[in-house]
Amino acid sequence: MLELLPFPFTWVLLGLCAVLLYLYLVWPYSAFKDVGIPGPKPVPLFGNYLSYGKSVGQFDRECYKKFNKVYGIFEGRQPIMMVGDLELVRDITVRETNNFTNRRVLEGQGEIIAKGLTMLKDEEWRRFRSAISPAFSSVKLKQMALVMEKYADNFVDNLDESAKQDAMFNMKELAGAYTMDVIAGTAFGVDVDSLHDPNNPFITNAKKRFDINLFNPFMIILFLFPQLGKVLLHFGVTLFPTEVIDFFNAAVDNVINMRGGNEDDAKRVDFLQLLIKAHNEELDRGVSHELVKHGVSKKAIKRESVLFWLGGYETTSNVISCTAYNLALHQEVQDRVIKEVDAVIEKRGKLDYEALMEMPFLEMCVNETLRMFPASQRLERVCNKDTEIKGLHIPAGTVVNIPAYAIHHDEEIWPEPDKFKPERFSKEEKEARDPYAFLPFGSGPRNCVGMRLAQLELRFALAKALQKFRLVPCDRTVVPIRIKNTLSNQIEDGVWLKVEART
C-alpha cells in the first residue's frame, strides 16, 4: 500500500508533523474569536507576550482603549480575558466572587510562592485569611503604631544626616530599609535595624527576590512553557533565588524558636503570634483540609511568614518613594501637606496614630500616587464554573485579568491621567466616581490583607519627614520616573532626591 504513494513515506511523516506542530502553535488562538471577543493579533507560540516589551501597563492602556475595555490576549498559548468594564469588575470581584475565588498558579516559582496566601484556593484560602485578618484591626494597628513611630524617627534621622551634608540620596533605598524594619518589628517582634546598616542581610536578600523582569529567561519559560517550569522545579531550579528563601526561612525559624514557652510572647498580638495561636497539629500529620475546618499547619506558618516579610518590604517602599518623588516635583502640593501636618501637630501636640487619621490631604496625595503607580498593574482571577455576567459568557477555567493600571489611566475617568492631581481624591470627587475605578490594593474579599498596615506605615514616614524637612529634586532625579517591566510597579534606578531642613 505504501508503495503506491507518489513520494517517500518519510515525507508523509514530516508533513504530518508539520501540520501537528502548526495546529499546536495556533490552535488556542481562536478561543476569543469564536465568542466574538476582540483583541490584538497573537504571534504563534508567543501570543502577545512580545508586546510586553513596551511595558505591561502601556500595552494594557493601548488595548483597553482600542478594544473597548473587554478583550482577549494570549501569554504564550494561554488565553487571558482582560476585563476593564467597571460593572464587570464589581461583579467578578464582589458579587460573583465565589465563582472567581482563586488565582492562576505558575509552576516553577517554588513551594513558598506557589502555596502562599495569594495563591491558596477556596476553603484553604478562607481559613488562612480568617486566621490573620485580626492582626490588622484598628486596635492592633494602634498598638503597632507605637513600634512604627520608633522606626519612623530613625527614618527621619537618616534624612537629617543627608540634610546636614547637603547630599543626594536614594529614597528607594532609605524607604526599603524603613519598611524592612517596620515589618520585622510589627509582624515578628524583631529589631533588624536596617536603617543603620545599608548592607544588612535582610535588605540584600530581599532585593534579590525582586530583581527580576518579564523578559528574564526563566520568566519567559514560565509563561510560554509552563510544564517545563514544573520539570525545572523537580531539579531544584526556581524563578526566585533559593538562598533568599532559605535566609528568610531560617529567620522565621529563629523567631518561632525564641517564642517557645515565653508567657510575654504568648500575649503578643502580631502577625506571627496569631499564626502560632492558629496552629493545628492535625494538619501537620497530613489530615485533609476538608476534614479539619480550623487552624493552620506549621509548614504553612513558616511559608506565610516568609512571604509576608518579603511582601511587606517592596510594595510599601515603592509607594513611599513615588509619593516623595511627586511631592518633590510639585512644591505647591507639598506646601499644603506641610501646612496640614503642622496644623494637626499643633492641635494634638504630637504625631501619633490619631493624628495621622486627621490628615486627609496627605491621604489624597498617597492615593493619587497609588493611582499613578498601583501596587499591581493587573488583578487576576480564575473562573471556577461557567458564568454569565452582563451578557458576557466566561467559561470555567478561564483566566480573567483586570487591567488596574489601564483603568487608573483612563482619560474618561481621570482627565490628564499622567499628571499628579491629589484633588481627584477629595470627598466630592470620590463620591461622584465609581468606586471600582480605583484598585490600588485589589477589590473584594481577595484584596490585600495588609493594606491598612501599609497605609499607616507610609503615612508615618511621610508625615514625620515633612514635619522637619522639605523634599526637593536634585541633579540625579529622573523625570519621569522609570518603572521596571514587571507586573508590579518596581522603580528602575531608584528615586534620587535631596532634603532641606525647614526653617
Automatic annotation (TrEMBL):
Q: Which InterPro entries match?
A: Cyt_P450, Cyt_P450_CS, Cyt_P450_E_grp-I, Cyt_P450_sf, Cytochrome_P450_3A
Localization per Swiss-Prot or TrEMBL: Endoplasmic reticulum membrane
- Check the record and name the Pfam families matching this protein: p450
Q: What is its main location?
A: endoplasmic reticulum
Cellular-component GO terms for this entry: endoplasmic reticulum membrane
Q: Where are the transmembrane segments?
A: 6-27, 214-237
Has the keyword Lipoprotein been applied to this entry? Answer: no
Query: Which residues are listed for heme binding in this entry?
Result: 448
Cofactor(s) this protein cannot do without: heme
Q: Which UniProt keywords apply?
A: Endoplasmic reticulum, Heme, Iron, Membrane, Metal-binding, Monooxygenase, Oxidoreductase, Transmembrane, Transmembrane helix
Q: Which GO terms describe its molecular function?
A: heme binding; iron ion binding; oxidoreductase activity, acting on paired donors, with incorporation or reduction of molecular oxygen; steroid hydroxylase activity
- What is the protein's known function? Cytochromes P450 are a group of heme-thiolate monooxygenases. They oxidize a variety of structurally unrelated compounds, including steroids, fatty acids, and xenobiotics.
Q: Which family does it belong to?
A: Belongs to the cytochrome P450 family.
**Protein name as it appears in the record:** CYP3A5 protein
Q: What is the lineage of its organism?
A: Eukaryota, Metazoa, Chordata, Cephalochordata, Leptocardii
Give the gene that encodes this protein.
Answer: CYP3A5
